[in-house]
Amino acid sequence: MREKNISVDRQKYLRKLKLKRIAIFGTQIGILFAFIIIWELLANLKIIDSFITSQPSRIFNTFINLSSNDLLKHLGVTFYETLVGFVGGTILGLIIAIILWLSNFLSKVFEPFLVVLNSLPKVALGPIIIIWVGSGTTSIIVMALAISLIVTILDILHGFMNTDKEKIKMAKTFNANKFQVLTKVVIPANISTFINSLKINIGLSLVGVISGEFLVSKAGLRLFNCIWRASF
């Protein structure tokens, strides 16, 4: 009887969480549609100048017109470059963060360098990257890595360093070595940190790709700049 009551309570709790997620998603969609509708109405009523802000209907029509001019190809190019930069930055960042956590000496040595590299304007390195790796897709991916990699390392390493010390001590009392502490305690405790890093990394990778495309590419998402301008 008790187990049945617990099961019912559990079902109610899960149902409540599901309804909450649906409500959040529905609200987000509602805000998006409300923003688009208000934007369109304000432009039609001449409350805002559509020459400066454009309007959703004009942007949509321009998008449709440009779809016949290899727009999907350009989107595919940017998607590929962003995906490679995102995956590469995430994997390299995780590996380097693990190495720095395993070696306190290396962590102390490279910490100031990572801080300086993180504050460095990566876009300014564009011409140097082009000279090093040549113009084309490779240089764009390297630009995406340059922007996202350091942030990933710092974010994940910070999470590793702030793992509950008591849990680490408990693992060591059971004769766990450092690798076992990493795989059994540190990494599981930082799943949320890793997910947050992914959320940040995808945006930074896209920024790096677009920055690189404006420097050397003849295809990609920079074409959306043409869509925006053509919609005025």
Helix content: over 70%
Separation of the first and last Cα atoms:
68 Å
**Average pLDDT across residues?**
81
**Rg, alpha carbons:** 24 Å
Topology as a string of helices (H) and strands (E): HHHHHHHHHHH
Structural class computed from helices and strand pairing: mainly alpha
Low-pLDDT windows of residues: none
Overall geometry = flat
The profile of the biggest β sheet is: none
Proportion of β residues? under 5%
Give the strand tally: 0
Count of alpha and pi helical runs: 11
What keywords describe this structure?
single chain, 232 residues, mainly alpha, 84% helix
Helix and strand layout, with pairings?
Elements lengths: L1 H43 L5 H4 L2 H11 L4 H32 L1 H16 L6 H8 L3 H25 L3 H9 L4 H12 L1 H26 L6 H8 L2
Helix pairs in contact: 4-5, 4-7, 4-10, 5-7, 6-7, 7-10, 8-9
What can you see in these coordinates?
- The chain is an all-alpha fold and 232 residues long.
- The protein is built from eleven helices and no strands.
- The longest helix is centred in the N-terminal third of the chain and has 43 residues.
- The termini are far apart.
